[in-house]
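Thread: quick sanity check before group meeting

JM: Hey all, I'm pulling together slides for Thursday and realized we never actually wrote out the predicted structure for the chain we discussed last week. Dropping the sequence here so it's in one place. If anyone has concerns about the input, flag it before I start.
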Amino acid sequence: MKRLVLVRHAKAVHWGYQDDFNRELSKRGERDAAKVSSHLREEGILPDLMITSPALRAFQTAMIFAETFGYSAKEIRKESDLYPGYSTPEFLERLQSLPRSAEIVFVFGHNPSMEEYASHLSTYFGREVPTCSSMVIDFDIDSWTEIGIRTGILSRQVNPKEL
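JM (edit): ok, ran it. Output follows.
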């Protein structure tokens, strides 16, 4: 089994839109990221691989998760095409190239892409994706090369306001 955890970045500050790429997390965003990552850690959902958009708010969210998980910040992969986002076919290709050894992969990015990926990769997904929402999608496959559209099962969605 392979598990994909899609994480929409946590709440960003409400200013700086002229330089959107460098908008940072708000204090609430920092708290939400710590809360959600702690919940996932308690559930035993720990990354073998973390990939993030290079936009500051997504990277900061990934850094908070990494700290919670004891995952080396140096090992977080930045992928420029996650900002603003891959198309679903491009994202699928990216997933198919993941190493077989990575059982649980976390991807940090932006909406509407995170919602689209969850919708297209899961057999059913019809929920809102607020900031710092984390969607855990399980695939009954041995290799990432086998992943396809609507082949995953949404096992849980963790939203900060629900914790």
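AS: nice. The helical segments are 27-42, 56-69, 88-96, 113-121. The radius of gyration is 14 Å.
JM: adding both to the slides.
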